[in-house]
């Protein structure tokens, strides 16, 4: 590779200092520091070492064939870096180890500490690796590069923390949503242990247990989908009359102490294409919150209607479900954030995930879930409204 003429090296270094500020990613920065910069200094290559504060060791970066970023473990290198004859720091070139191999070490010092190092090979046809003017420009490049590396390290740590938060969210969802089916399984299993259960009834209870375990498996898969941001639906056409009866019965079976007052004004023969498991979970999560708000026992009004509502592609029919409890209502301080993950108030074992999951599943259907605010101050209770479009041809992902 041809070298830049010595007379133009300062101009080239000035442009490289500007390009450091414009480097869009770590690959571009590595290419500039390990290829363009040593060429401008007439050096026989350069190695970029990034300091990993967690492991207190260096990681090497290089540009592999095809222009891809390649990481490697450098030879045993302590915190002081490899030993070279020259050290460039804050614009000053120092001969620190006359007997060491020819080359120049440039620390990349950021605000939070050492971000990395640049190790240059021997300079071609020059007694010193840089002149005084070049030393100042290389130090400027080093300072700007250190800032870029510091920002990259911060982003990397932020991504790692977000991944941990996502894992925590996923685990919390599983704990939250497993309580209902686990209560069912334990209850039916305890009745089987009592003895003197007729074979036909024992078989029926065993089928309930198997069904609940199957539901736990589906919930696990759905929670993974939620954590990954997936919108995976398993749609099937169901009669609305049967669906509504099943939802109400499921609430009472899973949530003892909750009495469901039904008000279903939906034509018996009407059908809808829905992911039944997701709708069941959304309704169950709202009902579970209602029971907790009422101290473990109370009445839940469950109504269903078909209404024509505004939509993005014009007015269309929706299945509208309204669930209203007789508890104290949603506290004023969390009403605007009630569907955000981990928002909860006054629940001893609440995770704040139930409504976030419910909203996600309703929105996966193209619907809306909203909290209806009380019309007058004396009005008590929380009231949630689910609107699910009934239009045929809703896109679905196979399960």
Helix and strand composition category: alpha+beta
Helical coverage, percent range: 40-55%
Instruction: Tell me the total number of β-strands.
Output: 14
The spatial strand order of the largest sheet comes to 3-2-1-7-6-4-5
Output the radius of gyration: 33 Å
Major beta sheet, specifics?
7 strands, mixed
Low-pLDDT runs of 5+ residues are: 393-399
- Supply the number of helical segments: 7
Q: What is the percentage of strand-forming residues?
A: 15-25%
Distance between the termini: 56 Å
Label the overall shape. Answer: elongated
The average pLDDT score comes to 82
Topology order in helix (H) and strand (E) letters: HHEEEEEEEHHEHEEHEEHEE
Report on the architecture of this protein.
The chain is elongated. Helices cover 41% and strands 23% of the residues. The C terminus is likely disordered. It has seven helices and 14 strands.
Concise overview:
The chain is α+β, with helices and mostly antiparallel strands and 399 residues long. The chain has helices spanning 9-22, 26-40, 132-193, 199-228, 240-254, 276-293, 354-364, and strands spanning 46-52, 57-63, 69-72, 86-89, 92-95, 104-110, 113-120, 236-239, 258-264, 271-274, 298-309, 316-325, 368-372, 383-389.
């Amino acid at each position: 590779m041809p070298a830049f003429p010595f007379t133009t090296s300062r101009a080239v270094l000035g442009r490289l200092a500007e390009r450091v500020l414009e480097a869009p990613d770590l690959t571009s920065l590595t290419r500039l520091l390990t290829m363009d910069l040593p060429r401008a200094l007439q050096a026989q290559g350069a190695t970029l070492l990034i300091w990993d504060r967690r492991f207190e060791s260096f990681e090497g970066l290089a540009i592999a064939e095809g222009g891809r970023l390649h990481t490697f473990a450098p030879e045993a290198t302590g915190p002081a870096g490899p030993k070279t004859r020259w050290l460039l720091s804050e614009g000053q070139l120092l001969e620190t180890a006359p007997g060491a191999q020819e080359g120049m070490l440039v620390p990349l010092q950021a605000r939070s500490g050492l971000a990395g190092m640049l190790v240059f090979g021997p300079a071609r046809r020059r007694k010193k690796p840089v002149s005084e003017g070049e030393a100042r420009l290389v130090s400027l490049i080093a300072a700007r590069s250190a800032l870029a590396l510091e920002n990259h390290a911060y982003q990397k740590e932020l991504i790692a923390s977000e991944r941990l938060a996502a894992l925590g969210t996923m685990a919390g969802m599983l704990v939250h949503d497993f309580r209902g089916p686990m209560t069912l399984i334990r209850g039916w299993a305890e009745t089987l242990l009592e003895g003197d259960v007729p074979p036909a009834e024992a078989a029926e209870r065993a089928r309930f247990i198997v069904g609940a375990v199957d539901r736990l498996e589906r919930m696990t898969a759905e929670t993974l989908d939620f954590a990954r941001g997936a919108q995976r639906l398993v749609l099937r056409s169901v009669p609305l009359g049967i669906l509504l009866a099943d939802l109400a019965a499921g609430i009472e079976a899973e949530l003892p102490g909750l009495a469901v007052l039904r008000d279903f004004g939906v034509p018996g023969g009407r059908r809808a294409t829905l992911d039944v498991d997701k709708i069941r979970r959304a309704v169950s999560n709202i009902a579970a919150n209602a029971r907790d708000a009422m101290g473990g026992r109370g009445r839940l009004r469950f109504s269903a209607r078909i209404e024509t509502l505004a939509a993005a592609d014009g007015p269309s029919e929706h299945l509208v479900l309204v669930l209203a409890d007789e508890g104290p209502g949603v506290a004023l301080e969390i009403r605007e954030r009630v569907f955000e993950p981990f928002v909860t108030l006054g629940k001893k074992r609440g995770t704040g995930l139930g409504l976030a999951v419910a909203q996600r599943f309703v929105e996966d259907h193209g619907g809306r879930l909203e909290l209806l605010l009380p019309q007058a101050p004396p009005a008590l209770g929380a009231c949630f409204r689910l609107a699910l479009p009934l239009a045929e041809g809703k896109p679905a992902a196979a399960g």
